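Input record (one chain):
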Amino acid sequence: MPGDALHTYEPTDLDDMPPRQAVDAVTADIHDHHITADGTGLMNATRHIELLCHLAARMATDAEYQFAPNSADLPPAETLGASAAHLGQAIAHYTQALAPLITLTTAAQDTLQQQLDSLDHHSRLLTHLDDAGRALAAARTALQVPRPAAVPSAPAPAPLQAPAVRRRT
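The corresponding structure, as predicted from the sequence alone:
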């Protein structure tokens, strides 16, 4: 929409955000900076890969940190690990999208055959970007897992006493 500010994040901007907010920030940045078949689209794709790589590394670090004391504000390590795995899938799809994007950006499309070939490149590009979007959505969904409620500890059971043994005299 005209007048709306674009979301533009640097990788370090994500460090001070909770994990789910960081995923949302990357998603907003991706939605605001479209991949087009030109130099700008190629620059946006590499920015997206940079953001996703930084976020995946951050999730993996947070998962490791979760095992340290005083980390109650983080989601469980398993949740962070699952989110990092989905981010890795998004990175893979973005990386696979580079080949058709570079071809579309650099190849001439003067002949009918070149134009037909560009349809295949566009199709492959869109497939990879759609798959990356689904992986990013799965990373966010993984972070929505509710934390288990703290269960009040029950008093420890009384130690069992050995039954009295009667001796016959």
